[in-house]
From TrEMBL:
Example GO BP: enterobactin biosynthetic process
Keywords for this protein: Transferase
Domain called 4'-phosphopantetheinyl transferase N-terminal: residue spans: 137-189
Name used for this protein in its record: 4'-phosphopantetheinyl transferase domain-containing protein
Native species: Phaeomonas parva
Length: 353
C-alpha cells in the first residue's frame, strides 16, 4: 500500500450463503437497512490470532461467507528445486506404499511433508516458477486444500490458475486465495445448490496495516464520498483514517474477486463504494452498470462484504511482519471477505438473512 496501487486483478471467488447484509445491485441499487441485519458483534475488537510456524496452520475460522484457512508463507529461499523434487518423491512413495519417501522427507524436514500433500501437477508447475513465486502459489494451494478439508469437502484435483489468476475449482465449490507476508489465506464453501439455481462467488483479501506513509493512495482507490467518510474517522482510534483507506482498498479487492465471474470484465476502483461499519459489516454501493441483460435475463445482482482485524493481541507491536507469531503486534492485518450472487428479479426482497 506504500507504493502506487496496481490495477485490480479481478478474479473468480467462492460461494455459500451467509448473512445478507449489504447493498443490492440491480438497475437501481438499494442499500440494505442496517438496523435489520445482524453484524459480527464488534468484529473490530475480535482479531483472529496468528499462530504456529513453518507451513502449518495460522488461521482457521468460519466467516459469514465460508471457511477461512491460512498457513504461514515459506521463505523464498526455502522452496528449492531439491525440496520440490523431494516432495514429489515422497508423494509417489506414499501412493505406492513404499518407504522410499522417508529419505526424501528428511530434506528440509516437515516442509517436504507439507508439500507432498499437494497435487503432483501443482508441484510440477511450481518447479517452473521463480523462488519468489513458488511460496505464495504453493502455500495458497495448501491453504485451499486444508480449507476444503475443514469444510467437509471431498478431495479435489489440481488447483491451478485460470486466465485471471483465480484458483481452478470444481463446479460445486467456490473459493478465493490471498497472501501477504507472513500468511497465505484461502476462503471456500460449497455452492448453495438452491432450487432457483443461485450460484455464489467468493472473494478474500488480506492487507498488512502499515505505518503512516507520505504516499496517499486515497484518490486512486476511493471516490470523493468515500474520502469524506474517511476524514470523519467513523471507526475510531482502532482504525485511523490512514488505515481505513487500506481497509476500504481491501474490501474492494474482495468484492471485485467475487464480482468478476458475474460481470466478466475489468472493474475499476471507483465503480464501487464501500463503507465499513464498526461491527464488521460493510455497506456496498455499486456504481457500475449491471450485467448485460442478454447474459443474465431477469436477474438481480446482490453483494455482501465483511471485515475484521487479524493479528496477535498481547505482543510486541514493533515486531516485523515475518516475525514468529508470538511477536506479532495487535492488530497487524485487515482480513476482508465478500460474496456475490444473482437472484431472480421476481424476488422482491431487498436483502436476505
Amino acid at each position: 500500500a506504500g507504493a502506487a496501487p496496481r490495477a485490480l486483478r479481478v478474479r473468480r471467488g467462492p460461494p455459500r450463503r451467509g448473512l445478507r447484509t449489504c447493498a443490492v445491485m440491480s438497475m437501481s441499487w438499494r442499500e440494505t437497512p442496517v438496523a435489520e441485519a445482524p453484524g459480527l458483534k464488534g468484529a473490530e475488537h475480535l482479531p483472529l490470532p496468528l499462530r504456529s510456524e513453518g507451513l502449518s496452520e495460522m488461521v482457521n475460522a468460519e466467516l459469514p461467507e465460508g471457511r477461512c484457512f491460512g498457513v504461514r508463507l515459506p521463505r523464498p529461499s526455502s522452496i528449492t528445486d531439491e525440496v520440490l523434487q523431494a516432495a514429489l518423491e515422497a508423494k509417489v512413495a506414499a501412493q505406492e506404499g513404499s518407504g522410499g519417501g522417508a529419505a526424501a522427507a528428511a530434506i528440509n524436514g516437515n516442509q517436504v511433508g507439507e508439500l507432498a500433500c499437494l497435487d503432483a501437477a501443482e508441484l510440477h508447475i511450481a518447479m517452473g516458477m521463480s523462488n519468489f513465486e513458488r511460496g505464495p502459489f504453493l502455500a495458497g494451494r495448501l491453504a485451499m486444500r486444508r480449507c476444503l478439508e475443514a469444510g467437509g469437502v471431498p478431495p479435489v484435483g489440481p488447483i491451478l490458475k485460470d486466465c485471471f489468476g483465480a484458483p481452478t475449482l470444481p463446479q460445486h465449490v467456490s473459493g478465493s486465495i490471498s497472501h501477504k507476508t507472513p500468511v497465505a489465506l484461502a476462503l471456500c464453501a460449497e455452492r448453495s445448490g438452491a432450487p432457483s439455481g443461485v450460484r455464489e462467488h467468493l472473494g478474500v483479501d488480506i492487507e498488512q496495516r502499515l505505518r503512516p506513509s507520505s504516499v496517499d493512495i486515497s484518490r486512486r482507490v476511493l471516490t470523493l464520498e468515500e474520502r469524506k467518510q474517511v476524514a470523519m474517522g467513523l471507526l475510531g482510534e482502532r482504525v485511523p483514517p490512514e488505515s481505513e483507506v487500506l481497509l476500504r482498498f481491501s474490501l474492494k479487492e474482495s468484492l471485485y474477486k467475487a464480482l468478476h465471474p458475474i460481470i466478466q470484465r475489468y472493474i475499476a476502483f471507483h465503480e464501487f463504494e464501500v463503507k465499513p461499519l464498526p461491527d464488521g459489516r460493510t455497506l456496498c454501493r455499486p456504481l457500475l452498470m449491471p450485467p448485460p441483460e442478454e447474459s443474465h435475463p431477469g436477474s438481480v445482482l446482490r453483494v455482501e462484504a465483511h471485515w475484521r482485524t487479524l493479528g496477535g493481541e498481547d505482543a510486541n507491536p514493533r515486531a516485523p511482519a515475518d516475525a514468529p507469531s508470538g511477536q506479532l503486534g495487535q492488530p497487524r492485518f485487515f482480513l476482508t471477505s465478500a460474496v456475490a450472487w444473482l437472484e431472480p428479479a421476481s424476488d422482491k426482497k431487498p436483502y436476505e438473512t
